[in-house]
Amino acid sequence: MGDSTLIMPDGRTVGFATYGPDSATPVVWCHGGPGSRLEPAALAPFLDALGLRVIGIDRPGYGLSSLRPGRSIADFVPDGLAVVDRLGVERFLAVGVSTGGAYALALAAMAPDRVRAVVACSAMSDMRHQPSRDTMSKATCHDVWNAPDRAAAIDVARAVFGDDGSLLMGSADVELCAADVAFIAQAATDPAQEASMRAQFANGVQGYVDDRRADGPGWASFDITSVTCPVVVLHGSDDTIVGPVNAHHTTSLVPHATLRIEESHGHLSVTAFVVEPLMHLASATE
């Protein structure tokens, strides 16, 4: 793994990390919210055998990336392309997890000549779709969306997460499915968890608040019908954080999308199934 940064034309810093051999098939990983470039680190031991090079990118306000208050989902696309350009990557696959699903799809919509395929895993849909929006947590989503301004939204998020993320595990006002409870217990034994938590909350809750303020208005900042590449929408049937209706709605919106529901899996545990469709898409789009 290598942590790196680059400076954008507006002076902002963008942080990223690479995993796997430089010569392998490149995959841009759009992390969850909260999250960071370190999210795909668990895949690192397997990437040589899989023939994948995974590029994790910190969205603004997370990890090594500068804050960018008022950003939209589409505003991430130049950051993502700047990173792959720095690495000498022309075409790539994209994975988007949870909040990151919209960012992977925005890349595909706005850079169709660069993105070979997308896996949207346990991803939020367009929040203009009320049934999808209704599945989201009051404490961690609706209360942030409904705050009158960014400062008030930060206060809401601080009360939920703690400014350092120390309240994260108890923040959800939903009951997790058994598969997600087991996933969290296993993740707690990972020595990389501390570094991941530090990166997620490098700027307190500001990155998270800016994510919510970007996705609250829905996918108005990019045209989802411009996606031309294959897309797999992967979701757990028992996801209580982002309800499966989100996956069904996204599949209905995205041209060339295939829906894959993993029975008895939740928001977190379903990430274990990302590799299979990713490898299939890598082969199918060579």
Summarize this structure as a short list of keywords or feature phrases.
alpha/beta; globular; single chain; 286 residues; Rossmann fold
Helix content: 25-40%
Largest sheet: 8 strands, mixed
Q: In terms of per-residue confidence, which ranges show pLDDT below 50 for 5 or more consecutive residues?
A: none
**Taking Cα atoms only, what radius of gyration do you get, to the nearest Å?**
17 Å
List the helices and strands and how they pair.
Layout: E1 2-7, E2 13-19, E3 25-30, H1 47-50, E4 52-57, H2 76-86, E5 92-97, H3 100-110, E6 115-121, H4 130-134, H5 138-145, H6 150-161, H7 178-187, H8 193-200, E7 202-205, H9 206-215, E8 231-236, H10 245-253, E9 257-262, H11 275-284
Parallel strand pairs: 3-4, 3-5, 5-6, 6-8, 8-9
Antiparallel strand pairs: 1-2, 2-4
Architecture overview:
This protein has 286 residues and is of the alpha/beta class. It has one domain: Alpha/Beta hydrolase fold, catalytic domain (Rossmann fold). The chain is built from eleven helices and nine strands. It has helices at 47-50, 76-86, 100-110, 130-134, 138-145, 150-161, 178-187, 193-200, 206-215, 245-253, 275-284; strands at residues 2-7, 13-19, 25-30, 52-57, 92-97, 115-121, 202-205, 231-236, 257-262. The protein has an eight-stranded mixed β-sheet with strand order 1-2-4-3-5-6-8-9, sandwiched between helices. Helix 1 (47-50) links the parallel strand 3 (25-30) and strand 4 (52-57). The model has no long low-confidence stretch (mean pLDDT 95).
